[in-house]
Write a structure and sequence with these properties.
16 strands; Membrane-bound Lytic Murein Transglycosylase D, Chain A; 5 helices; alpha+beta; 7-stranded antiparallel sheet; 285 residues
């Protein structure tokens, strides 16, 4: 089952007929009409991919937004932040463009999503590489360029967060247990993660085919210590933390079962184990 994800090419817009510029979180439409050349700000990374950022001491939301070239509201909405309060070690999802990340629910259509976020349907189709009339299914992820969330929508989202946090899609058989030995030492906690206890040096395996998007060695790193994040073809990500050794680098393609590191106790850890998260799907372990 294929899922939607932001395109990886540098200019995913092609020859669409809209012109949009993002400036301080405000969409500015060209006064020259719909015949103008397209411009959609992909953020300073220019990759079109969702990023993950660990807050460092002294960081502010406006500085992080400037670093990634997106609006402050984009970060607030993607992480359900109240006000402008963030703390050291906090993990932030950063979209590749100013706007909104929407997880498709039953009954959603691209037209209803565009209307709900006061966005342009053609921009949504272009950024996500979709044809007009494309079908979407619950669990698909759609990036809404220049989408906005009203105060009422924000309130509804926050009031239902606890009830829906585990309503993730299940992908039976997609993920491999990342450690072949050891036992689960802690159930679901944090960001849909579990802990698997095993001796230091025990190989850690890639749970599914994918590409490494974060690879950190040494340091506290928000409590994760040495850790790796891999993005997968179904739009999900897996995270492997507290490693004693990291064998992979950002941009590297890995295959399911490949050794990507070894069990350790780096970061915020009381003993050798793997903290394993599945982002965007049910954690099958």
């Amino acid at each position: 089952m294929s899922l939607l994800e932001a395109p990886l090419n540098i200019n995913p817009i092609g020859t669409s007929s809209a012109e949009i510029a993002i400036a301080d979180g405000v969409a500015l439409e060209s006064s020259s009409g719909r015949e103008s050349e397209v411009f959609v700000d992909l953020g300073k990374s220019g990759t079109g991919q969702i990023s993950v950022y660990i807050v460092r001491q002294g960081d502010t939301l406006s500085e992080i937004a400037e670093m990634f070239g997106v609006s402050t509201n984009t970060i607030i909405w993607a992480n359900d932040i109240r006000g402008t309060s963030i703390k050291e070690g906090q993990e932030l999802v950063i979209l590749p463009i100013s706007g909104v990340r929407h997880v498709v629910k039953k009954g959603d259509t691209l037209q209803s999503i565009a209307k709900n976020y006061k966005a342009d349907l053609e921009d949504i189709l272009s950024f996500n590489g979709l044809a007009n009339g494309a079908k979407i299914i619950p669990g698909d992820i759609v990036i809404i360029p220049d989408g906005v969330i009203s105060a009422a929508q924000t309130s509804l989202t926050r009031s239902s967060t606890v009830k829906t946090s585990q309503n993730y899609p299940a992908y039976a058989g997609f993920y491999l247990r990342p450690v072949s030995i050891g036992r689960k030492s802690q159930g679901l906690h944090g960001n849909n993660g579990i802990d698997i206890g095993a001796p230091t040096g025990t190989p850690i395996l890639a749970s599914a085919d994918g590409k490494v998007i974060i690879s950190r060695s040494g340091g506290y790193n928000g409590g994760y210590g040495t850790y790796v994040v891999i993005t997968h073809s179904n739009g999900t990500q897996t995270l492997y933390a507290h490693m004693s050794r990291n064998n992979v680098s950002v941009g590297q393609e890995v295959v399911q079962g490949q050794i990507i590191g070894a069990i350790g106790s780096t970061g915020k850890s009381t003993g050798p184990h793997l903290h394993f998260e599945v982002r965007g799907a049910k954690n099958p372990f």
